[in-house]
Amino acid sequence: MSGSNIFKILSDKQRRDILVMLRDGRMSAGEMAEKLDISPAALSYHLKQLKSADLVMEYKVKNFIYYEINTSVLDELILWVEQFGGKKK
Predict the structure, then answer these.
(1) For residue range 28-44, what is the model confidence (pLDDT) as tens digits?
(2) Judging by beta carbons within 10 Å of its beta carbon (0-12, 13-18, 19+), is residue 59 exposed, middle or buried?
């Protein structure tokens, strides 16, 4: 996990919204663009950023591409952040 890169990518609200949508399972780009009310080009840009940080994986099924959240990267991030949570008394 590249810390600075992942935080920069997660700083964008639309990318966080994409991750929240993918919490419930795989979605196609068309479904996401419609729910977010953004252009396919804008969604493509955000998905490219999320894929570059391994936060999202893509799967091809026939003529469709589906996107899914990569929880292992988020798990690593959570573990890293938790180290700053302070000590219990």
Answers:
(1) 999 999 999 999 999 99
(2) exposed
Alpha-carbon radius of gyration of the chain: 14
Question: Is residue 66 within 8 Å of 59, Cβ to Cβ?
Answer: yes
**Long-range contacts from 32-36, C-beta under 8 angstroms, 24+ separation:** 32/67
Number of alpha carbons in the 13 Å side-chain half-sphere of residue 76: 11
Residues 9 and 3: their CA atoms lie apart, in Å, by 10
Looking up tokens 């493509």, which residue turns up? 44
Terminal alpha carbon distance of the chain:
31
pLDDT (tens digit per residue) in 17-30: 999 999 999 999 99
What is the pLDDT at residue 1?
A: 46
